[in-house]
Amino acid sequence: MPTLDFTHVRKDYGATPVITDFTASIDDNEFLVLLGPSGCGKSTLLRMIAGLVDTTGGSISFDGQDMAGQDPRQRNVAFVFQSYALYPHMTVRANLGFPLAMDRFRWWNQFPVVNALSVRWLVRRPEIAARIDEVATMLALGDLLDRRPKDLSGGQRQRVALARALVRDPRLFLLDEPLSNLDAQLRSSMRSEIAGLYQRVKKTFVYVTHDQVEAMTMGTRVIILNKGVIQQIGTPQEIYERPANVFVAGFIGAPPMNILPAAVLAAGASDASEALVGIRPEHLRLSTDPAAAGMRTRITSIEDLGSSWVYAFELGGTPVHATSNTKLSLFTGEEATVTFDPADALRFDAGTGLLLSPDRQTH
Amino acid sequence: MKNKIVARVAWALSITALVVFAGFPTYWMLTTALSSDTELYKTGQDILPHLERLGAFPTAFLSMPMLSWLGNSFVIATGTTLLSLLLAVAAGYALSRFRFYGKGVTGFVLFATQMLPEALLIVPLYALFANLGLLNNLGGLVLANAAFTMPVATFILKGAIDKVPFEIEESARVDGCSRMGIVSMIVFPLIVPSVAAAAIISFFDGWNEFLFANTFISDSALWPASVGLASFLGQFFTPINLVMVAALTFALPAIVFFLIAQRSIVSGLTAGSVKG
After folding, report:
1. Domain count within chain B
2. Looking at the whole model, is its pTM more than 0.95?
């Protein structure tokens, strides 16, 4: 049973459409990644799931129940913000206890002053204190419970934000670029931590990112968005191997897939048709042998990444990248021959940019 | 090293000069308060205060209804501060966070109230207060003063609320916090420095206010200290030393309030909440 359904969801800010006709289903216990460039509407979509932003059209339903008019609290979701969004005047313990205290609020707790005192009192109650300790232990925050956010490092703050999401046992976890403020090393370790957390809690996660490494390594399924429109839905492997269009092909992979204009000759046909050919940099082979069959080019730059090398050159005026796991005896400015196996190439429609098929011979 | 010493001496001298400049009027008030009528009106006032006459202070203080006037001033200033802050937090939050028709005009109208001098409004306000039975009423003065301090407080607090990251509020909404809870439990603690600044402005405005109090309150038992002090000015003789005794006691509570409130004016309360 799908836990989350989007049916023709639309969001406009004034006259500007942000999401146009988004229809998708997210299965139970899935780790779905919404991937796309900045401004593509992925964070807006996450906020609509949480109920922080209203939809302009269409519907979002949880387990078949339409969420229209339900506030964030009624939806029972947890949200991890890109900027952590911790309560700076509260200790880590109070930050973690706050959602649990809210669960126990009655009408008379809502009055100013009374509410703050109630939170202090509720956070000390045995069942809440025990739950805070349990989550804090799970995320190695035990020693930090009495500190305030300003006394924590970036990684620790992010763990507190995760713990706060975890503490109330929500039915859905929404994470909005949670690692984008961390340095590369910390990001890598937090990536593993979130993946481990998903394995432990086995709930539905919706994770927004513009970082394809996070999408490819963490997601069970990925939705790629551009300008508010779904470009492709699939597993990371499917998206990498069979991108639905040239946008996806150019967005996934570092360096991205090379897209070259080409004339395609179908087997047995005499007339060639125009198309775009996509080939991953790792599928291109470079040779210094001038007699080798293939396309001749001149190397314009070489990037040494330590474990692999990226060679840049042009083919027919189009910039192209090739990668190799072994260092080739090639230097910048030197001539080289480029070859590839046609089976590795994908063919896209020259007009629409949509994937046609990978099994055609190209010239 | 030598340059450092010169810089420190220059710094100390500048600070001393500033302290003397700022503190001299208060010192002169004390000296005047401890001078006799003869010294003030005939022989001339001494530079140094006659501290041996401090014993006469309570007698001079009790010879006038200063305590009850100070009490009235306190009620007016506290009422003005509380009412201004209550309205200003709500108005500042609305102006900062909500989009509504006429928002720009509302902001301008609040600002425009500061362009009108009190003297211009005193006649229509008198007529209004007479109709509402608010003359000779401390509550009426609180309302009149708050009308002038609230817009200033609103602008101060709106500016502070603008700087509170929006995500903190969204986070509280996801946690199940009501709007009132967000304002009182999340936003308010983060704008305490600005609330303290607005409180100081409102309190001093209410404490020092003279024109409305002098016009709307005719019963001398309900006078605030500002009006009480002015009543010492006689046609033929003004007991300046007594006025200074009263003025010193009038200044004291305001100074104490300032010292308490200024401790809250510290920056960086939102540090660590969001990355930035």
Report:
1. 2
2. no
